[in-house]
Amino acid sequence: MYLSPNGSLQHIISVNKRICLLFTKKFPYGPMESYISNELPFLSKTFDAVHIIPYHEFSFNEKESRLKDFSYSNVSVFQSNELPRYSIFERIERSWDIAKLLMAELWHSNQRSITIKKIKTLFFRIKHYHAIAKKLAKLCASEKTSLDTTFFCYHYWNHDGVVIEYLMNKRFQFRPKKSISRAHSIDLFHNDWPKGFVAFERLKIDHLHRIYAISEIGLNYLKKKFPKEQFKFHLAYLGVKDEYKGTVDFPVGKFTILTVSNIAEIKRLPLMVDIMKYLPKDLFQWVHIGDGIAQYANPLRNYAENSGIDFTFLGHYHQNQIHQFYQNHDILCFINLSYMEGVPVSIMESMMHGIPCIATQVGGTAELIQNNHNGYLIQPEIDIEGTANLILTLSQDPYLWKTFSKNCREVYLKKLNSNSNYHQFYQEMIEDIH
Asked: Does the predicted model carry a pTM greater than 0.70?
């Protein structure tokens, strides 16, 4: 099956069996990476079988699996927690593979920040990934029932999944027809890591057929840093399904300010409390959707309670619940205060619903929000009072709010609609490379 340009699903008559290996960090488990769910309908219809490989997952608790919310008979999860044993000879081979990878990394990285501790960490990571590669290659060999079976590797992150596939190729003779990855932010920019180190960067560039940056800033970064490999780099925005209810009105009554994210240090949600202090409590309320570990969630709740602001923490919502919240509530604006982003899906969802956004100018956010057009861009060094004044401006000018709202929809329809974005992305994935 394939996706027509209008987003409908059409059948392809083909004798080829296409199998996709989707490498994720933890999806479909846990609260992270929920936006991958947007691509499942397209994956399921494009390929005869889809195997998800969550290489950072260890518990595989099916009660936490997001797949239970869907009914895709051809989508399964590869269990990477029951790994094969190695004979003495295989251990020698594995040690040699690890040594070659580490030596190549030391040679190509040219990073002063590489320490003995980091090398030791990389050693144990590769050792674990080697076992995953061995088990996964065996699975793929069992599924290659004819010469017409072709494998496609799709790395949602330009991350360690590529190393696993590389080991499958070099040690276990796994040969996919095409291997591609997306490139977001933390898997791309060195300065997004605490100590400025992205492992196996050269290996990924050499091994992958194509790398799809999810933002123009990411694409330009790759082209500038690796000018000889520019032919491998492409732009492919993520997207969200159009769940727009058909109309959105300027909010009446108490103004709701919405944030949607995991509660994590990177999101800087305590600053929302500081902003809310500058707004009249009787006129404004803050609603947050998303949860997080107690280390960050509990202090945030205590800080909000002690600050005397009007706030509500709704916890984790599935995507359909988030859309229902947008449809059933009048929202003044959506806010993102993160100090690091790729192209935030949460902002895409807000724009799809016609809600003006205020967000830090980091990563590819400026490719979504045009200042004074569909929202406001603010500097990463946040001016608390200045941000509160932007919120007040929106609340006092219905015409400005409606203009921003209309422009949000226009930007969404132009470049963030999942039907058009994923149609093009998956068609390119299964096409031959010229």
From this structure: yes
